[in-house]
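Case study.
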Amino acid sequence: TGSVGTSVASAEQDELSQRLARLRDQV
Amino acid sequence: MAVPAQFKAIQHHLRTAQEHEKRDPVVAYYCRLYAMQTGMKVDSKSPECRKFLVKLMDQLETMKKELSDNDSINQEVVGNAHIENYALKMFLYADNEDRAQRFHKNMIKSFYTSSLLFDVLSVFGELSEENIQHRKYARWKATYIHTCLKNGDTPQ
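After joint prediction, the assembly is written out as follows.
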């Protein structure tokens, strides 16, 4: 369960980073 | 949303954004962008922080759409000039009041808000030495004058 939770968290963190890059037109 | 305790360092930037929502949406946008970037470095893993950051990102994306015709949002070099001019305007107002020995809540708030906006300038890249000095001086002056007035002393 722990590893699933961690991978969900890092996937969501990646998603946030991608959204931030898109917001700043850095993609 | 309530600001998670882990994000204490950006709560005043977020409050400044709220205060400028109508007055100057460009200032509000970049204060939130600074808070977003800083918050992601502090904690983007704990559920409450992640939830807060997702909401903040939603808000930023909505603002970007609403301000889509504003060059200060479309071109960050223009945004940089906008925030720097605004920060310096607040700093100079407070500095003039200070030199005229007119000490009051507004000038303290102007010093403090200008120091927050010098923080926000870091989203555009490294601060100039001059702005680093402005930020330090503004934060020190706001704290010093606030303490003097609270203790009934006259700031020197």
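Observations recorded in class. The mean pLDDT of chain A is 77. DSSP finds one helix and no strands in chain A. We will return to this complex in the next lecture.
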